[in-house]
Write a structure and sequence with these properties.
Length: 355
């Protein structure tokens, strides 16, 4: 375990003012020492020390005696390191290979990383909870994993240096990188229709369905509609995000109009769904076709092998690290990048079973 080094009041103030300068919320000149100390609740000595550090880093410039410090947004000067807070979707994401490699690459570049005190699951869609989570951190920049629309929109509206990995970044003006899953979901849905399926359901979390369907979910609905299949809540059902709620949702699908194919978002939900169906004597591809929208190394051990959507996460990690370097150099952009995915047709899909 790395040694823990708590930040002093001076370092905390430096990080706070530096973030404001980079985000543009502080510009032209810095308020006077006493005024700034009173506004932020710190002593004049703390302000003086923080200002000295920011001058050394090139963020502030003297204009002479009794004159306010000039704010300079560096374009070429590199800050030694940044405090990076990673906002996880849920606690299980700590152990994901993507998260581990992302932290490794950021720390290899000389930065300090930590996890936010709450997860996106904890925060939900509550703006006050998002703000409270940010207030507890001294981060210079944020990296958000699988952010909901509400969380990403909040970050974008606050001008906080933030980078979105995956999630609903495409609907928000925020820097980010992720997967072009909609093309592969389109191909997967098209293939099911070619195999004779008309009763196709996609199971996805609430933030993928609301306030409007995400890009992948919309690609699924569009492909159904373009083939003359009437779309509605049956195809993208609401469900309570608890273990019991997931079980009830699966049971409900087979009460009136049983689906012949299910596309499941997230590996964990796919495995739970497959287990649930097996308890009912429903197996793929004999009785139903199943597709997972994510890759997993264990799929190669399944018999039959799982039809899924595959991609490489390395370009996303590289882009995130490059973006942090740009912030380090005083540049903040809001460009988004997508890496390609591929639909892998395996043994869990087949023609509609004959009754």
């Amino acid at each position: 375990m790395k040694p823990f080094h708590p930040l002093s009041a001076v370092d905390q103030l430096v990080a706070y003012l530096r973030e404001g300068i980079m985000a543009g919320t502080l510009s032209q000149t810095l308020p006077g020492v006493h005024k700034l100390g009173k506004e932020l609740g710190v002593s004049p000595k703390t302000v003086v020390a923080a200002v000295a550090k920011l001058k050394h880093e090139g963020f502030l410039k003297d204009q002479g005696a009794r004159k306010k410090s000039l704010i300079v947004k560096p374009t070429g000067k590199k800050i030694s390191s940044l405090q990076i807070s990673i906002l996880l979707y849920d606690l299980n994401d700590r152990a994901l290979p993507f998260t581990i490699e992302l932290r490794h690459q950021l720390e290899a570049a000389g930065h300090i990383t930590s996890f936010a005190s709450q997860t996106i699951i904890d925060i939900g869609r509550n703006a006050k909870k998002i703000a409270a989570c940010i207030d507890k951190s001294q981060a210079d920049v944020w990296i958000i994993l699988s952010g909901s629309y509400e969380v990403l929109h909040w970050f974008a509206s606050q001008n906080i240096p933030a980078f979105a990995c995956f999630g609903r970044r495409q609907e928000v003006k925020i820097a980010g990188a992720g997967i072009d899953k909609q093309t592969s979901i389109h191909k997967a849905t098209k293939r099911l229709i070619e195999l004779g399926h008309r009763k196709i359901v996609m199971i996805a979390r609430e933030e993928r369905r609301k306030p409007e369907p995400g890009a992948g979910e919309q690609a699924f609905l569009n492909e159904l509609a373009s083939n003359g299949i009437k779309v509605g809540s049956y195809n993208l059902p609401d469900w309570e995000e608890t273990p019991e709620g997931f079980e009830r949702a699966l049971d409900g699908l087979f009460k009136v109009t049983p689906p012949t194919a299910i596309i499941v978002d997230e590996v964990s939900f796919f495995m739970i769904a497959q287990q649930h169906l097996a308890r009912r004597g429903i197996f793929a591809p004999q009785h139903i076709s199943l597709i997972c929208t994510e890759p997993n190394p264990t799929f190669s051990w399944f018999l039959p092998k799982v039809a899924h959507i595959d991609w490489d996460t390395k370009p996303i990690i590289r882009r995130a690290v490059r973006w942090v370097t740009e912030v380090q150099n005083g540049k903040i952009d809001k460009q988004q990048y997508s890496t390609k995915s591929e639909f892998i047709e395996e043994g869990t899909i087949g023609p509609v079973p004959k009754i």
